[in-house]
Amino acid sequence: MAIEVRIPTILRTYTDGEKAVQGSGGTLAELFTDLDSRHAGIAERIVDDGKLRRFVNVYLNDEDVRFLDGISTKLSDGDSVTILPAVAGGMV
């Protein structure tokens, strides 16, 4: 099962600068474990205590996984996962 994972600039140090990598897994949790086996340390930047980190947004085919099943969201061959750091700020 091939799943394209789009990597944000801040995490590309784990992927040797690659903007996108291939991964596999039946769920997001399995995908992140697979990614970590080839790109050591990346999973701990995305997941904490079995949940997505608060300031990391993950999209499955452009849909926010927080509105699906979170880290338990099921994946299919050909899916696209995008990891984005949350952005905060503004004028006071």
Written description of the protein model:
InterPro entries: Beta-grasp_dom_sf, Mopterin_synth/thiamin_S_b, Sulfur_Carrier/Prot_Modifier, ThiS/MoaD-like. It holds the Pfam family ThiS. This is MoaD/ThiS family protein. The structure is a single chain. This protein has a single domain, classed as Ubiquitin-like (UB roll) (Roll), CATH 3.10.20. By secondary structure, the chain is of the alpha+beta class. It has two helices and seven strands; from the N terminus they run ββααβββββ. The termini are far apart. The chain has a five-stranded mixed beta sheet, with helices on one face. The mean pLDDT is 92.
For CATH, the homologous superfamily is named as Beta-grasp domain
Strand content range: 25-35%
Estimated helix fraction: 10-25%
Total domain count: 1
Largest sheet: 5 strands, mixed
What would you say the CATH architecture is? Roll
Kindly report the average pLDDT value: 92
So what's the overall shape?
globular
Rounded Rg: 13 Å
Number of helices: 2
- The CATH topology turns out to be Ubiquitin-like (UB roll)
Output the CATH class name.
Answer: Alpha Beta
Distance between the termini: 47 Å
User: Would you list the SSEs in sequence order as H and E?
Assistant: EEHHEEEEE
Structural class: alpha+beta
